[in-house]
């Protein structure tokens, strides 16, 4: 579902995928297992061979918000915790059984420093992640209907992959609002 994580667009990630498969270790996560919990550190990323992860953030009032997903053939990690060793801002939890090739930040950084092409790839990953986060920030100023339309244009199969209440949480609205938007768009 590469259309969800737009940072994957326009880049050839096969080199990093190959590195994960070569140097990484296969790890199985059962539905409900955590890849990382909010406020923990994890210096590993993973290539999702199979399965789906959900990213959540618990705010100061204890409310949980869905902030992202990683699907089969995508990467899973909290980028700042992975690269800088800082505390994670999110929890990443398997919402299906998952098989992941995990690789350490040390191995990725060492790889990115091998030549100019891999340095460029590392820089492009960071730039694309920044662009995706910036787009998400600007989306927060749009109406719920526009946010829903953009999400469905980008990721038309999402409604089959995750429940309505999770899509609503991702959009920052109630499930009833999403149902209302869907009814309106069907007319």
Automatic annotation (TrEMBL):
Q: Which residues form the Cyclic nucleotide-binding domain?
A: 7-104
- InterPro entries for this protein: cNMP-bd_dom, cNMP-bd_dom_sf, RmlC-like_jellyroll
Q: Where are the transmembrane segments?
A: none
Name the SUPFAM superfamilies on file. cAMP-binding domain-like
What protein is this chain from? Crp/Fnr family transcriptional regulator
Pfam families, alphabetized = cNMP_binding
